Amino acid sequence: MSLDLVDARLRNQRLTGIPLATPADVVGWLGAVQAQEYGESKWALAMRARRLSDAAIERAFSAGTILRTHVLRPTWHFVTPADIRWMLALTGPRISRAMSTYHRRLELDTTVFRKSEKAIAGALRGGAQLTRQELKAALQRAGVNADGAQRLAFLTIQAETDAVMCSGGRRGNQFTYALLDDRVPATRTLSRDAALAELTRRYFTSHGPAQLHDFAWWSGLTVADARSGLEMAGRELSSDTLDGRTYWSAAKTVRALPRPQQAHLLGLYDEYLIAYKDRGAARDRSRGTRTTAWDPFSAPVILGGRVIGGWKKKIAGERVVAKVTPLGPLGRRETRAVEDAADRYAAFVGLDLELGWT
To answer: 8 lies in a domain?
Structure first.
């Protein structure tokens, strides 16, 4: 069977086709969205929705309709209140095991975490939302050594994975933490098998067609768990074989809308690339053999789903200054598609655009 990985992934990830409506719709559809680069992650949501501005996503984050915490791989992700508890119950133990080497080096153990999480819960009680440095002060008052950026970071990460706290609203440009119980009223609980089946279904529906090892990478679960999830969710998924590899996706696909070839200026760590262990489908071999053939700190530019270069941007007064570095020459239509994508980013941040090429 013929399988167009790029076209299907663009549609299922909602980069083409029918856009979603709200930040929570996007996060819920994708399951989780990598979000350690906060501004880049807001743009990732906007690209998959209809006319979402940076300010609108910021309001959603402040209101708690999307949350930011350590879930899946040991890094920040956006997740919805409806999903955060069962997802943490499934992936939290795996995250803790993945960080155990750091814990031993920093002399962090169950006894320390029990004491630190009691102090954190006490400091956040009553609806308080505190910055990491304010939590550090609370930990030190409770007799918990929180000196050093790494030790403090791992204390707070453990409190997130143990479902003690999650993101609060931002205070200016500073992030805060809030009690999870304050941010998220009681939600459904799932057995481990049900949670594994749900996460599997969610990934392959929104990110498929993808391979088993892609899901294991994205989720941070073992390959054995990923295989079990596929077995349990199999009735809702279908498989195709391409070049000897098996790809899974939802049995019912997202409806396509006819449109000319479209460009996207992706942010760093966008789900379109970061969600797969095997990213070969996004390569345009006519322009280079590696997805990261440009400055690794440039975010990717894709055209028709394939990487054609990178881009950087900065805010300068009332303008956003964007510079695109193609991997090779672009034709007139390709250039116009990239310009349209840059216009969409300028509209997202609400600033005038100055676009340059290098």
So the answer is: no
pLDDT tens-digit profile, the chain (358 residues): 357 899 999 999 999 999 999 999 999 999 999 999 999 999 999 999 999 999 999 999 999 999 999 999 889 999 999 999 999 999 999 999 999 999 999 999 999 999 999 999 999 999 999 999 999 999 999 999 999 999 999 999 999 999 999 999 999 999 999 999 999 988 778 999 999 999 999 999 999 999 999 999 999 999 999 999 999 998 899 999 999 999 999 987 766 665 668 999 999 999 999 999 999 999 877 765 454 445 556 799 999 999 999 999 999 999 999 999 999 999 999 999 999 999 999 999 999 999 999 8
Under 8 Å between Cβ of 179 and 121: yes
Place of tokens 């030790």: 151
Domain carrying residue 136: 19-183
Structural domain total, the chain: 2
Residue 351 CA, chain-centre distance (Å), reads: 25
Rounded distance, CA 203 to CA 182, Å? 28
Q: Are residues 107 and 29 in the same domain?
A: yes
Q: Which of 183, 206, 237 is the last residue of a domain?
A: 183
